[in-house]
Every structure is written in structure tokens, then in C-alpha cells.
């Protein structure tokens, strides 16, 4: 977070029994992307728990959500606006996530840890010199703890190894399962014959460390899934349906062809339809990349994804919600063969080399010793010791530990990582291709140059009163103006804001609603001033592009907009490679060509016209303002329009990749020392325990060095 | 070595106690929101009277 103050904390009121117990099942979930401290928790819980229609509300800070139990059919819209009133952005989550908990794995981890520690205690006694019957006694107790614990805790590995073997393939879990089973079996045999070496602690340490890696992996996967769900929730999922005289809120999915929908100015068209009533202006940049507003008249087609710039309007839908352009594109993007499905992660590539190597070595050791000594039992012990000592404890932890640290850092920086291999691919990127409209620039309403100062002051006072994106966009240009003292301000939903200034009626809003002019106008008494829409670069765009270039990346800009608009923006942002007036297919081709030259392209785009390019690229990022279809297609989504996040993502991705490779090197180093000893027959249970624990701890500590900033 | 008869069971019982405690915390969803729990200790929301506005 770039020093974003917590606007809500200041407003934290007294606590009225905020500590919610847990009465009833959760019925609703709201996503609160901006909460970050105890003051936020208190403000949100105090506000929600004070409402009569909410039985209880409890904030989950790690997931940045609030879980609410209320009547199942309660409408969360008033809660969202109440939260917005105290400064918290909130979105309704689609359906309460009925998450399958990873408790099973954590429980196994706990049991493995408990068993490992106790067996280690017993082993220390053996290592420090217990002999004969004492040693046998300690071994038997260790066996009684270790065998059931190992069999229960290592089940996930057995299951996965078996399913791989059944289709005649080797995965990482095959050597793991083999090592655990053989270590337990060999130790049991040694115990029964009163032998010297038992590897019970090694079997359990192996299980414990690998389960640790597995738990981290599951958490990551769950975080990625919940990130995807969060994004889906940012899309409006309720619309206002007009039914005769009544207006009702209903979920988008229930919209049928022929329905009449009411849309406020600034809202996105949810389903394709025909405009009813007056003419209006729409922003079609999501579909075409054009930044100029488009005039539509009664009966014209509005496509899902268009943004209404004037309104309110009504439209008659021509298709069901499931058949809308938006949905079709979402489906198209989800079936597209992207780079991510072709990419093999570093971990699986390492496993591909590792598994055959370990098995080969152990088998060679068995054959070698059997040939040299003729003692099958002794050869078998050495082969098993080799398998145990080389087992990929560190390897199993190396990748999940780093990825967990990296995605956690990114989540705190407002970046959601959706794909599991995204970070690895992002680290390899050498070219960044930006879409222009909506990604590097947005459109703002600007006041005409002929406006007198008191009109600007009134404009500021009115615009400040509303949270509407259009009125918000006026404000940056009015930074030097003192707001006028406008009284009796009222917002007319979807149409505009009214008030009184020096006894004269003033209004800001849609021309159709005010009754004069075109587009958005400011009215003072009888005088009206039109507000023009102009494209401007996002505040962090120029700096972000400079930073990326400093990191040694090539920067390109693609847009469906006209060459003149593109050139103006390129000059402002200092981009040399500009491709203007390109269709979605051409965007994809351009990226394909760049990649054919051997470049690894990162595509950053927000529009529907970018989805093909996003899937084609080696890696992809979408801003939080992007449409669901583009966010689905992207690997990484930035919350809000904070472009500086792109630099952070690339930096962390590179740092994470370095850590992963270092971890592999560390694991290999340990094995290079341990394997010759094991092959030579010098391996003892003590050595196995030391090698396993030290290497696991080193890779975990090394993972923590994954850093967010230079 | 007779001391082992006391020491081994007592170490096992202590270990089991810790394991049972761990399972209890797990069942009580105490690992759901680690960040939130860290933040919540700063809230003085127990039986104190409401401060005046």
C-alpha cells in the first residue's frame, strides 16, 4: 500500500458489543479491499452489528472480508452504501464461499510433528549410546508411535503416488512414498531383529517437512481461488428491472430477453439490448479501445460492457443474461489455450529430473553392493538409506515456501495472483505491451476554459458531494479552487446533483435531466456550462513506464483508438513503439509476432478487445477496473488502477525465481555431500536426520529473503 | 534404567497433551484469520463502559 491512510479509522465509533459470537450460519460475505488494521475491524463490525437486519458480522482481516449472518434473502446493497459512508469500499461476494477447509492436512501436519518430536527424543537416547535391551526397548516405543503416525499422516502422498503409478507415470510423490514406506519397513525389521539402526525419525521428519510444503501449497491455491472469486464480485451482479410501474433489484443471471432494465449514468450495460427513450452517450472503450464518447439514439444497440455516460436510461434486452456478448467472451477466454497451460513449473521440471535420478542411484547402489559383497540384505539396507537420505524434503519445500512469501507480499501490495505459475513466467518477461485506453489512460470530465471562477467553485462543491465516478473525475483538475458554499445538496441517483448557491438553483448532471445542453452540464440559474470529456494519462503511468524501462524491459503500446489519440498519449508517456487502430485479432497477432522473435511478452490490458492478447501473451496483468472477461484471462490483477504495482510484481517475481533456484542449489548441495556417504555405506539415522532438518530449514529461511523492494 | 519406566510415559503424556490442545485449536477455527487476531488484541472491547462521545 502506498501510504494510503485509513479513512475509516478516524470515524471509529464507540464499540457496542462488537465481539460477535457465532449465532447462525453466515449468509452473506462482503469483500473489503481496503481494510488493514484493528481500527478498520472495529469500524466495520460496529457499523454492521448495530444494524437491525444483521444478526452478526465478523471481519476476517487475512481474507479482507466480512462474514455476515442475516436473513438469507436480505439485500446487501444498503450495507455496502453504509460502509461506503464511513470510507470503506465494499463489494458483495457472489454466494458465501463454502470453502473446503484444509484442516485435514493441518491435522496430519500436527500429528506428524508430535510423533516426530517424541521419536526424536527416543532416538537421541539411542544415538548417545543406549545399547542392547535398552536400545531395543526405545526402538519398540518409537515403532509404536511412528508406524501408525507415518501411515496416517503420509496418506496424501500415498494416494497421489498410486494415482500416478496407475497411469504408469512417475511424480515426486513416488520417491517420497517409497522412502517413507521403506524407512518404516526397514526400521521395523531392524527393531525385530535387535539391529543397530532404526530410521523411524527420518520417516517422520520426511512426512512432517513435506506435509509443511503441501499445506503451504494448498493455502496458496485457496488464496488464488478466493482471489478469482473476489474479482468476480467486483463486477456488478444486480440490476434494476422495471416491471410495469415497479422497479426491483434482481441478480444479473435472472435477466431474460425482453426485460426492461433501468441504468444509472456511469453504470455498465449488463446485457445486450436496445435503448428505449431519449438519446444518450456511451463509452465503448472496453470493446473497441476508442476513447471518444459515442452518441446513441433510441432503438440503437447497446452491447454488454458499454458504459453509460448519460442517464438514467432504460433498455430492452434482446438476449438472456447467459447469451450476452460479455458472457460469450468470458467463456471464450476461459477455453482459450493460454501460455499458462503450456508452461511446466520449475517444481515439476525439477521433479522430472529428480525422481528417475534418485531411483536410478538407489538401484545402482543395490546392484553394486550385491555384486561386491554378495550380501543381499546389506545391499538392500544401503539402497534404502540412499533413498531416505536423498529424499526431496528441501525440494518439496523449496517452491511452496517461496511462492507463499511472494504472493503474501503481493497481496499486501494490492496485487492478486490468480495463476500458480504466474510468478515464474513473470520473472522471465523481457517486453511489456500496454493497452492504452483504460490501462494507461482514462477519461475525465474537464471544465471549459470559459468558465468563471465562481462557476468552478460551484462545480467543485457539487462534484465533491457525490461518489459517482464521473463527478469524481472532475475533481483533480479543480485542485486549486476553493469549493463554493452550496446548500441543500441532494443527489438524484443516476442523474445528477442539485443544490442552491446564493439563492440560485445549481445542478450538475445529465443534460437530459437538467433539460438543456448535451452530455454532462453544470447549471447555475439559467446559465449552463457543458463539461467536455478528455482523455488523460493515469497519474502513475509515466513513472511506471520509466521504471520498467530502467529494469531493462522493452515497452510497447497497442490501441484500438485512432492514431492521433495514440500518438498524443505516446508523446506524453514517452513510448516509442506504438500500434494504433488495431483490432483484437491484430493485437493477438502482434504479440504472437513479438514472441516469434523470441521475446517473452507481458500484456497489460483491461478491455474486452484485449482478452485474446492477454491469453496469447507469455504472462498477463489486468487492472482492477478491467472487465471480468479480461480479469479471467489475466494471470495477475492489480486492485484499483495502481499501475506502479506492475513494477512491484515484476520485481518480486524475479526475486522469487532467484530464491527458488538458490533453494534448488542448496538442496543439490546437501545431496552432493550426503549421496556419496550413503552410497559408501556410511549413512546413519543421525546423518539422515541432520541432513533433512538442516536443508529444510535453510530453504525456508532463504524463502523469507524474497523481497518487495530493491 | 528403571527411571525410563517413569520418564518415557511422562514425556509421551506431555506430548499427547500438546497434540490434544493443537487439535482443539484446529477445531475452534483458530487459524482462520491470523492477521485479524493479531489486530484484535488492540481492541478494548471487553466489559468497559461506552466512552462518552
Q: What separation lies between the terminal Cα atoms of chain A?
A: 16 Å
**Topology, number of strands of chain A:** 26
The count of β-strands of chain B is 0
Tell me which protein chains meet in the greatest interface and how many residues each side has: A-B, 29 and 28 residues
Structural domains of chain A: how many? 5
Strand order in the largest sheet of chain A: 14-26-25-24-15-22-23
Can you describe what's shown?
- The complex is a heterodimer of chains A (710) and B (53).
- Chain A is an alpha+beta fold and 710 residues long.
- Chain A has five domains: 9-98, Alpha-Beta Plaits; 103-226 and 342-395 and 686-694, no CATH class; 256-319, Calcium-transporting ATPase, cytoplasmic transduction domain A; 404-441 and 539-654, Rossmann fold (3-Layer(aba) Sandwich), CATH 3.40.50; 442-536, Calcium-transporting ATPase, cytoplasmic domain N, CATH 3.40.1110.10.
- Chain A has 24 helices and 26 strands.
- In chain A, strands 14-26-25-24-15-22-23 form a seven-stranded mixed β-sheet, sandwiched between helices.
- In chain A, helix 6 packs antiparallel against helix 7 (200-234).
- By secondary structure, chain B is mostly helical.
- Helix content of chain B is 60%, strand content 0%.
- Chain B contains two helices and no strands.
- The longest helix of chain B is centred in the first third of the chain and has 25 residues, at 3-27.
Amino acid at each position: 500500500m502506498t501510504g494510503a491512510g485509513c479513512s475509516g479509522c478516524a470515524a471509529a465509533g464507540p464499540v457496542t458489543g462488537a465481539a460477535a459470537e457465532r449465532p447462525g450460519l453466515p449468509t452473506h460475505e462482503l469483500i473489503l479491499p481496503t481494510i488493514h488494521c484493528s481500527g478498520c475491524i472495529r469500524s466495520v463490525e460496529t457499523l454492521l452489528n448495530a444494524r437491525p437486519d444483521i444478526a452478526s458480522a465478523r471481519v476476517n482481516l487475512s481474507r479482507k472480508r466480512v462474514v455476515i449472518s442475516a436473513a438469507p434473502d436480505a439485500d446487501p446493497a444498503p450495507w455496502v452504501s453504509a460502509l461506503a459512508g464511513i470510507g470503506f469500499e465494499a463489494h458483495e461476494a457472489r454466494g458465501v464461499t463454502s470453502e473446503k477447509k484444509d484442516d485435514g492436512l493441518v491435522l496430519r501436519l500436527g500429528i506428524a510433528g508430535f510423533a516426530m518430536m517424541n521419536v526424536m527424543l527416543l532416538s537421541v537416547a539411542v544415538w548417545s549410546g543406549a545399547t542392547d535391551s535398552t536400545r531395543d526397548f526405545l526402538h519398540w516405543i518409537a515403532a509404536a508411535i511412528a508406524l501408525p503416525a507415518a501411515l496416517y499422516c503420509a496418506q496424501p502422498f500415498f494416494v497421489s503416488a498410486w494415482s500416478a503409478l496407475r497411469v504408469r507415470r512417475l511424480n515426486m510423490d513416488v520417491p517420497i512414498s517409497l522412502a517413507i514406506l521403506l524407512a518404516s519397513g526397514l526400521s521395523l525389521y531392524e527393531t525385530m531383529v535387535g539391529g543397530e539402526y532404526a530410521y523411524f525419525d527420518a520417516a517422520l521428519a520426511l512426512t512432517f517437512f513435506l506435509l509443511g510444503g503441501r499445506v503451504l501449497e494448498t493455502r496458496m491455491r485457496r488464496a488464488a481461488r478466493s482471489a478469482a472469486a473476489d474479482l468476480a464480485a467486483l463486477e456488478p451482479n444486480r440490476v434494476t428491472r422495471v416491471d410495469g410501474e415497479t422497479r426491483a433489484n434482481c441478480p444479473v443471471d435472472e435477466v431474460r430477453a425482453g426485460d426492461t432494465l433501468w441504468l444509472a449514468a456511469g453504470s455498465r450495460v449488463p446485457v445486450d439490448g436496445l435503448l428505449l427513450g431519449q438519446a444518450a452517450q456511451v463509452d465503448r472503450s472496453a470493446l473497441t479501445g476508442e476513447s471518444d464518447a459515442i452518441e446513441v439514439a433510441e432503438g440503437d444497440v447497446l452491447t454488454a460492457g458499454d458504459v453509460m455516460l448519460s442517464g438514467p436510461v432504460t433498455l430492452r434486452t434482446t438476449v438472456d443474461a447467459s447469451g450476452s456478448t460479455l458472457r460469450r467472451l468470458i467463456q471464450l477466454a476461459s477455453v482459450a489455450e493460454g501460455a499458462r497451460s503450456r508452461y511446466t513449473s520449475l517444481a515439476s521440471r525439477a521433479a522430472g529430473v529428480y525422481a528417475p535420478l534418485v531411483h536410478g542411484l538407489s538401484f545402482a547402489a543395490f546392484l553394486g553392493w550385491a555384486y561386491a559383497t554378495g550380501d543381499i540384505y546389506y545391499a538392500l539396507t544401503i539402497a534404502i538409506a540412499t533413498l531416505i537420505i536423498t529424499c526431496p524434503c528441501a525440494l518439496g519445500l523449496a517452491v511452496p515456501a517461496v511462492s507463499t512469501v511472494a504472493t503474501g507480499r503481493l497481496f499486501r501490495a494490492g496485487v492478486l495472483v490468480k495463476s500458480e505459475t504466474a510468478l515464474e513466467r513473470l520473472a522471465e518477461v523481457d517486453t511489456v505491451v500496454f493497452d492504452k485506453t483504460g490501462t494507461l489512460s482514462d477519461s475525465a470530465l474537464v471544465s471549459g476554459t470559459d468558465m468563471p471562477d465562481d462557476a468552478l467553485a460551484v462545480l467543485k462543491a457539487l462534484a465533491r458531494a457525490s461518489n459517482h465516478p464521473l463527478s469524481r473525475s472532475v475533481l483533480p483538475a479543480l485542485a486549486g479552487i476553493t469549493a463554493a458554499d452550496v446548500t441543500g445538496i441532494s443527489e438524484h441517483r443516476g442523474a445528477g446533483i442539485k443544490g442552491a448557491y446564493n439563492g440560485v438553483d445549481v445542478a450538475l448532471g445529465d443534460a437530459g435531466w437538467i433539460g438543456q445542453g448535451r452530455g454532462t452540464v453544470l447549471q447555475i440559474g439559467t446559465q449552463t456550462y457543458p463539461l467536455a470529456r478528455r482523455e488523460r494519462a493515469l497519474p502513475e503511468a509515466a513513472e511506471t513506464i520509466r521504471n520498467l524501462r530502467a529494469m531493462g524491459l522493452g515497452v510497447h503500446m497497442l490501441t484500438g483508438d485512432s492514431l492521433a489519440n495514440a500518438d498524443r498519449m505516446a508523446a506524453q508517456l514517452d513510448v516509442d513503439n506504438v500500434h494504433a487502430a488495431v483490432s483484437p485479432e491484430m493485437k493477438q497477432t502482434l504479440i504472437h509476432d513479438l514472441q516469434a522473435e523470441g521475446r517473452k511478452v507481458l500484456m497489460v490490458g483491461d478491455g474486452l478487445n484485449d482478452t485474446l492478447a492477454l491469453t496469447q501473451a507469455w504472462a498477463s496483468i489486468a487492472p482492477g477496473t478491467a472487465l471480468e472477461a479480461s480479469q479471467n484471462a489475466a494471470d495477475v490483477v492489480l486492485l484499483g488502477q495502481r499501475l506502479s504495482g506492475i513494477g512491484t510484481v515484476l520485481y518480486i517475481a524475479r526475486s522469487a525465481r532467484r530464491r527458488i533456484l538458490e533453494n534448488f542449489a542448496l538442496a543439490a548441495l546437501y545431496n552432493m555431500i550426503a549421496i556419496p556417504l550413503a552410497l559408501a555405506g556410511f549413512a546413519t539415522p543421525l546423518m539422515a536426520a541432520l541432513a533433512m532438518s538442516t536443508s529444510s530449514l535453510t530453504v525456508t529461511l532463504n524463502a523469507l529473503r524474497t523481497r518487495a523492494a530493491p | 534404567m528403571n527411571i525410563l519406566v517413569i520418564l518415557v510415559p511422562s514425556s509421551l503424556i506431555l506430548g499427547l497433551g500438546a497434540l490434544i490442545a493443537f487439535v482443539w485449536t484446529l477445531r475452534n477455527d483458530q487459524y482462520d484469520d491470523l492477521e485479524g487476531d493479531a489486530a484484535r488484541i488492540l481492541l478494548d472491547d471487553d466489559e468497559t463502559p461506552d466512552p462518552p462521545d
